[in-house]
Amino acid sequence: MTYKDLSIADVLTDPLIRQVMRADGVSLSGMALLLHTAARKQKTPQKSRHVPEAALRMRGSV
Questions:
Q1: Contact criterion met (CB below 8 Å) for 36 and 8
Q2: Residue 36 domain flag
Q3: pLDDT class for 47, splitting at 50, 70, 90?
Q4: CA dihedral sign of residues 30, 34, 40, 41
Q5: Is the residue at 1 inside a domain?
Q6: Per-residue model confidence (pLDDT) at position 35
Q7: Which is more confident, 46 or 29?
């Protein structure tokens, strides 16, 4: 079974999510900011996680 990812609009209008937000004291604007910030960070290229060979030699991994 596959499920589609919810859009930000879907999350912000989902009744169950809204109940949880209310119970946790999370505002609609706060949740929207959180989701938009997370989406923007996912689109931003991450720095390479490549470990230089010299560093591996220092650890005794090469």
A1: yes
A2: yes
A3: low
A4: positive
A5: yes
A6: 96
A7: 29
